[in-house]
Amino acid sequence: MLQTVVKQCQALPSNTKILIFGAGFSGQHIANVSRQLGAKVLCSRRELNKPGADFIFDSTKKQLPDNEVFKGVTHILSCIPPDENGRDPVIEQLNSVLQKMPIKWIGYLSTTGVYGDSKGNWVSEKNTPNPKQPRSQRRLECEQQWISTGLPVQILRLPGIYGPGRSALETIIKGKYKLVDKPGQIFSRIHIDDIAGAIMHLISLSEQGTKPNVINISDDLPTSNIDVLRYAASLMKINLPCVEPFEKASKHMSPMALSFWQENRRVSNQYLCQNLKYSLIHPDYKSGLQECFSHLKK
Ligand SMILES: NC(=O)c1ccc[n+]([C@@H]2O[C@H](COP(=O)([O-])OP(=O)(O)OC[C@H]3O[C@@H](n4cnc5c(N)ncnc54)[C@H](OP(=O)(O)O)[C@@H]3O)[C@@H](O)[C@H]2O)c1
Questions:
Q1: Whole-number Å distance between alpha carbons of 75 and 208
Q2: Is 109 in the pocket of ligand 1 (CB under 6 A)?
Q3: DSSP string of 65-92, one letter each residue
Q4: pTM across the whole model
Q5: Confidence category of residue 16, pLDDT binned at 50, 70, 90
Q6: 163 alpha carbon to ligand 1 midpoint, in Å?
Q7: How far apart are alpha carbons 251 and 263 in whole angstroms?
Q8: Residue 177 and residue 181: Cα distance in Å, rounded?
């Protein structure tokens, strides 16, 4: 919930102006939190008539922001995935502009897919990335492109993102799901309140000179999808269908869906929560889904 995040964050310095490239699901929530904390925020989408769009940025059509957009910018967040060649859309089009700006902080939303398959073991920022999926290889290339700009960038690695409007509750309501049983398979996840909260915490730490290059933002409890769906169903008082073994269910999965089941890792948040002292708003899926459910009831 917006106010819960805002309450636990420090106000941003009064001259803060944040550009958010790719203000989709996560970007819009982070924009709303940042505005409540006193920042001026401008968000890009590929079309001006999409919710929350302040300006257009579309790397494919080479639609770039006006100079005015960049005036006074102190912070940048990119939520845009890699292009099909593994190039980062923002760096490809705007690196020369960014290089001339006095930017204090840049956040790049990446994925924990860059760690590859750890066979269910914990992975932390100390693990060398070992992406197996082509999309995760492209993502690692983009991380490296950001780092090699020399700009003050933090790479924020995220597992499955959920929040109001995009959670197991909607998955069940839409009816397009199966209870797939693959023993030992777990997934990590993060609620958008904690993406926003952690980013505000990291911006505040960077003001004090603490600015690690790579941070995982994930909750405390990697869990099977079945447990998450069952809990979501219990909140809505809905009965779920029978469990289907992975061997059977996988025959009807898209290549994309299948690729998620080929990797099994527990993403550690120890660095963020213990070393950098971020306090999670939703430490597990139960807390996060309860919050999503409160929006559904409205
Ligand atoms: N979803 C997950 O579970 C997950 C997990 C880990 C990491 N991530 C990554 O974290 C980031 C944020 O995730 P999200 O789910 O909040 O993303 P999202 O809602 O899909 O938003 C992505 C944004 O990127 C913009 N975009 C895409 N291609 C672009 C291009 N060529 N030029 C300009 N803008 C472009 C989109 O523009 P429009 O608004 O016009 O569509 C949208 O605003 C993404 O990079 C995503 O890949 C996602």
A1: 15
A2: yes
A3: --HHHHTT--EEEE-PPP-TTS--HHHH
A4: 0.98
A5: very high
A6: 15
A7: 17
A8: 12
